[in-house]
Design goal:
It is built from 5 helices and no strands. By secondary structure, the chain is mainly alpha-helical.
Length: 108
């Protein structure tokens, strides 16, 4: 058995250096948090809103950026706003009222 011929390839194909991935940019950027420009902060927020759960998990589990990521997440991603409180209140009111009505109808 003979080995395959590579006669047409005098040199191996040239491989260009890879561009850093978006996740690598996020890791390099979030590690500098809170010392970010407004543009960097906007890009980070946009990335976290669009990123897959796998990418977010990989950033979160990177020990080199973990502490900065936790601070960034606390300040920008895990906020409980007044709008969230109103939605939660309406949810409880709507479903709580429905349960109360069903219980009232069931006991009469």
């Amino acid at each position: 058995m003979t080995s395959p011929s590579f006669a047409g390839f005098a040199q191996p194909p040239r491989i260009e250096p890879a561009q850093p991935s978006a996740r690598e940019w996020v890791e390099r950027t979030v590690v500098r948090y809170p010392h970010l420009t407004p543009d960097e902060l906007d890009h980070l927020l946009g990335w976290f809103k669009a990123a897959s759960a796998l990418d977010v998990g990989l950033v979160a589990s990177n020990e080199e950026v973990h502490l900065a990521y936790v601070a960034f997440r606390k300040d920008h991603l895990d906020r409980f706003t007044w709008g969230d409180a109103v939605r939660a209140g309406l949810f409880v009111l709507f479903f709580g009222g429905g349960v109360a009505a069903i219980l009232a109808l069931g006991t009469s």
